[in-house]
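Protein in question kept in full:
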Amino acid sequence: MIIAVDGPTASGKGTISRRLAADFALPLLDTGALYRAVGLAVLDAGEDPGNGDAAIRAARALDTARIDETRIRASEVGAAASIVAANPGVRAALFDAQRAFAARPGGAILDGRDIGTVICPDADVKIYITASLPARAERRWKELQARGESVTLDDVAAMIQERDARDASRAAAPAAMAADAVLLDTTYLSIDEAASAARALVEAARTRPRA
């Protein structure tokens, strides 16, 4: 069973995906971490994330086993990730790794922005998770505050809005909800409520005969 979980920044897709992975004993790939790692590598090399050649080199050299989960969550790395993710060469360099993960025996869960539309268009379950901009901004702001980053809520909202626009308008695999995905709005849901709703969607898909 392949489960594709898509959605914008701070919608809750990462947390929900981890809950689903535990519930259904499936391996999970946070594809956003790949792009964040590429963005971080470009920054560490002293390059501009908008430098296409530098971004492609970083993507091709990426060692997924050495991704620093703490450093890639910084706000500036998230911004860099959105920029490098718009590079067709970067997306091509990471495509095979994502497809190979999805092809694991027994299935897998992948979360990102183009899983249901590009990476796994044949996924058994497609869930698009979203929430209002104010809700997402507050969630991300609290995460950054907890990490000791000094940033205002308004600045976080502006960054998220800018990233949403960039992700949706990029020429290569724009972020979008798949036509056959189920929408899950987490604006007014607790983590447990959102995870429970997602689990119910997967359970329903498992019992539904495929065409």
About this structure: The chain has a mean pLDDT of 93. The chain has nine helices and five strands. The chain has one domain: 2-207.
